[in-house]
Amino acid sequence: MSDDRETAVSRILDRFYVEHGPCCAGCDWWAHANSLVGECRRSRPVSGAERVDMLGIRSSSLRPSAGHILTRREHRCGEFRDEFDWTTLPAPYLRQIGWKGAPHAG
Ligand code: SF4
Prior knowledge:
Layout: H1 3-20, E1 30-32, E2 37-40, H2 48-53, E3 70-72, H3 91-96
Antiparallel strand pairs: 1-2, 2-3
């Protein structure tokens, strides 16, 4: 992913998190693959079939490789964690994502 694209995807996800509250998009355990899906690194890797199960993929012509479970950005589980200090981000960026100053004031 190019830097410009990476920045754009991060901004989309940060805005989504601010607007929707606690979810994978804002969780410290999550590593996005794109603006909708990412992998949860909270737990150990699983088989390819298990990895895509939460996306609703039951059969695929491509065999997914083993790895961390993939989730959609709006998902949330009891292990959600956000310990990132958002106030370290530049003020213009915080305005772009609609940040209102609290972990979920959005
Ligand atoms: S909310 Fe739960 S499933 Fe989503 S990234 Fe965080 S720990 Fe993983």
